[in-house]
Amino acid sequence: xxxxxxxxxxxxxxxxxxxxxxxxxxxxxxxxxxxxxxxxxxxxxxxxxxxxxxxxxxxxxxxxxxxxxxxxxxxxxxxxxxxxxxxxxxxxxxxxxxxxxxxxxxxxxxxxxxxxxxxxxxxxxxxxxxxxxxxxxxxxxxxxxxxxxxxxxxxxxxxxxxxxxxxxxxxxxxxxxxxxxxxxxxxxxxxxxxxxxxxxxxxxxxxxxxxxxxxxxxxxxxxxxxxxxxxxxxxxxxxxxxxxxxxxxxxxxxxxxxxxxxxxxxxxxxxxxxxxxxxxxxxxxxxxxxxxxxxxxxxxxxxxxxxxxxxxxxxxxxxxxxxxxxxxxxxxxxxxxxxxxxxxxxxxxxxxxxxxxx
Length: 358
Fold this sequence. Notes:
The chain is α/β, with parallel strands linked by helices. It is 39% helix and 20% strand. It is built from 10 helices and 13 strands. The protein has helices at residues 4-19, 22-26, 52-70, 88-97, 130-140, 159-189, 204-207, 224-231, 233-253, 329-341, and strands spanning 31-36, 46-47, 50-51, 75-78, 102-109, 119-124, 195-201, 213-220, 284-293, 310-315, 318-323, 348-353, 356-357. A hairpin with a 2-residue loop joins strand 10 and strand 11. The longest helix is centred in the middle third of the chain and has 31 residues, at 159-189.
């Protein structure tokens, strides 16, 4: 049997299926809430003198600034902008009360296994394996710091809660997975990071939201090299850019035409558009990124049999391997086709404006 509180939650979810339709009906995104995990008396994961709450806040604020600068049609709100403690249910309440179209919670990971590394993005669902459950327990453990928290949360593992979970998923899962996939793709292609993929788990902060939502784990603080990257200004900038680019792609994919139907963008073919214009006078240049590696590139690497001239961008412990620069987009696209034909399937176009990677 359902408790009175659970019956009330079921009613809320049912109502949301029919009444929270602006996102579902027209696909447009006007308001996003960015949630920096932990804060204040809750440091989150701590390793190598680095606290999760600090990394999460820095990256979250950087993402927000990028959205505000480049997507002026999207309003940005934050669950916190300073080092303060915010209860999980309050984070979701902020998003719900402001009728946000999307909720993004940003965290850093930790594990007992010091070799664990890589990014992962979660959507709400059942934690079907021990690894996912470990992350959930750590992130949900903050409720023990909340006074009277028992009144605000149901047992997410109970059969009744699973019904609520399924109802929530019916409304928002597709959009959440779509964005999560874009995030992990950008972590791979823009940041050159290892991705652990898109996963489902029962995070309380997502469970309480009434809109599509994701929880992003930027990497493992308990992995020494990854922690150095996460704690660095350069690493945080790259992570923020990756999330922003994914969000921009998501907004574009879900933009509506005048008839209210979602416009489909074929991102697979985006790099295949031919543009023969030279951009030398506008300060725009192009390269093809071929792959990224955590090891030094040997002088006899096979890539040199494909391209005579290679450039390397060092980002923390990672090296991005790229072609030389060109002012012709068409030439750069030809290099991408050449790289893919040689087996470098992940090659993609990179644009530079006045020498700054976009």
